[in-house]
């Protein structure tokens, strides 16, 4: 009997051992079949939204003198090879608008016409229009909240009106019965009661009628909100027209510095095209430039004349830089070339990294920009979520929708449903989908 128990015990031990070995190997095989991901902790810190770029110092080839496309050249006041001083008039422009200004004016007039038509068809009063254009119109949510309150008041008034109507009808019927019975005392009491209640009844009826008239305000409120948005857009277009008009009012284009005219691309009577470089000049003193490529979004943050900070100045030289111009990259339609004028103790061949733009700010959640994904539902990141099981932790990719607040060259500040301790997926060996099981890189 004892031998039999020992045999059963040994068989059970062997079976459990085999199961453990098979489980181990099956788990190992499963783990190695999963997509491997690398993660990084979501952290807080600062982001500097400056535009950075590196390049090599070159001898300046020349400075471009530009004017808005669509303007007509009236006179050319210099010739190729002419030496000019800073402030000398190089050429003059005829009356007229630039292409950008003409387009802005057309957009403004079209929006103005649509706004006036919308005002007329909406049937609003002069006072209502003043409120819309003052910017004091409440949001649609505010209006909806007031409508909910008004609806509740309407229902309460209707209830009071119905009860009083029934009561009055019942009292009149009771009075008719008392009159037939010759009960003059009761008739007098009922008449007194009806006299007392009649003024309350009329007041409730008046309030009810007024409440019913306001019942159609939802559509009117939506109209007013839409008109408010149209008016805001109209104001933005008007502002753009004013800015472009201010930019193009001067008819004289002057030399930005002393130097020599090296090339003239237009003659009097011609209209400036999209390239808008009218002439090129060489600075009086030897000048140096440094250029680098940026994206269209980065280019919008830079303008000619912006100071540029010199980073990592390994040479220890006294060097300053400023943006000379920002142009479309002839090699790539989606990029722009930033050309910076270098001053101080610089030499051809020196390498510098420049930083242009805004200062840094602190943010709660920062991730590498490469982690941010996008689909038809918007931008999101994938984080790793651990799930405890009897056989150990299992890891799953979970989606978190985010809004990108700002970015620099490599990282982005985000906002979303985050706690601040998540691990965001940075790289994967294969594409990963939401809720997919993954394994962590060693």
What profile does the largest beta sheet have? 7 strands, antiparallel
Helix content: 25-40%
What is the tally of beta strands?
A: 23
Output mean pLDDT: 80
Uncertain stretches of 5 or more adjacent residues: none
CATH architectural arrangement of the largest domain: Beta Barrel
Report on this structure.
The chain is α+β, with helices and mostly antiparallel strands and 442 residues long. It has four domains: 1-33; 34-48 and 361-440, Beta Barrel (conserved putative lor/sdh protein from methanococcus maripaludis s2 fold); 51-93 and 254-356, OB fold (Dihydrolipoamide Acetyltransferase, E2P) (Beta Barrel); 109-243. 39% of the residues lie in helices and 33% in strands. The strands form four sheets. The chain has a seven-stranded antiparallel β-sheet with strand order 3-16-13-14-15-12-4. The protein is flat.
Brief overview:
With 442 residues, the chain is α+β, with helices and mostly antiparallel strands. The protein has 7 helices and 23 strands.
Summary tags:
single chain, 442 residues, conserved putative lor/sdh protein from methanococcus maripaludis s2 fold, OB fold (Dihydrolipoamide Acetyltransferase, E2P), 4 domains, 7-stranded antiparallel beta sheet, 5-stranded mixed beta barrel, 7 helices, 39% helix
């Amino acid at each position: 009997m004892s031998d039999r128990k020992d045999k059963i015990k040994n068989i059970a031990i062997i079976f459990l051992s085999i199961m453990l070995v098979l489980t181990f190997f099956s788990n190992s095989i499963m783990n190695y079949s999963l997509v491997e991901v690398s993660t990084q902790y979501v952290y807080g810190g600062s982001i500097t939204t400056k535009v950075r770029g590196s390049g090599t110092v070159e001898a300046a080839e020349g400075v471009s003198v530009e004017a808005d496309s669509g303007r007509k050249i009236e006179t050319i006041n210099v010739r190729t090879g002419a030496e000019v001083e800073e402030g000398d008039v190089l050429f003059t422009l005829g009356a007229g608008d630039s292409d950008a200004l003409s387009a802005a004016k057309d957009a403004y007039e079209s929006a103005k016409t649509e706004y006036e038509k919308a005002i007329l068809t909406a049937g609003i009063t002069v006072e209502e229009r003043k409120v819309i254009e003052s910017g004091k119109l409440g949001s649609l949510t505010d209006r909806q909240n007031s409508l909910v309150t008004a609806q509740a008041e309407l229902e309460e008034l209707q209830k009071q009106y119905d009860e009083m109507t029934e009561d009055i009808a019942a009292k009149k019927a009771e009075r008719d019965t008392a009159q037939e019975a010759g009960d003059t005392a009761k008739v007098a009491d009922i008449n007194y009661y009806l006299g007392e209640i009649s003024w309350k009844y009329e007041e409730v009826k008046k309030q009810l009628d007024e409440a019913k008239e306001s019942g159609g305000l939802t559509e009117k409120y939506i109209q007013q909100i839409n008109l408010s948005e149209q008016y805001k857009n109209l104001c933005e277009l008007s502002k753009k027209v004013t800015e472009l008009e201010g930019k193009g009012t001067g008819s004289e284009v002057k030399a930005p510095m002393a130097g020599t005219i090296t090339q003239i691309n237009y003659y009097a009577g011609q209209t400036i095209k999209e390239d808008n470089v009218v002439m090129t000049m060489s600075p009086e003193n030897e000048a140096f430039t440094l250029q680098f490529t940026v994206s269209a979004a980065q280019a919008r943050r830079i303008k000619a004349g912006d100071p540029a900070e010199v980073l990592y100045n390994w040479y220890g030289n006294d060097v300053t830089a400023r943006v000379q111009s920002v142009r479309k990259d002839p090699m790539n339609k989606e990029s722009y070339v930033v050309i910076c004028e270098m001053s101080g103790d610089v030499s051809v061949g020196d390498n510098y990294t420049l930083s242009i733009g805004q200062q840094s700010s602190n943010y709660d959640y920062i991730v590498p920009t490469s982690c941010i994904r996008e689909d038809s539902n918007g931008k999101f990141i994938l984080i790793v979520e651990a799930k405890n099981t009897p056989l150990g932790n299992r890891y799953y990719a979970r989606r978190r929708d985010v809004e990108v607040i700002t970015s620099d060259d490599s990282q982005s500040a985000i906002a979303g449903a985050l706690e601040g301790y998540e691990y965001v997926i940075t790289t994967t060996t294969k594409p990963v989908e939401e809720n997919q099981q993954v394994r962590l890189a060693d």
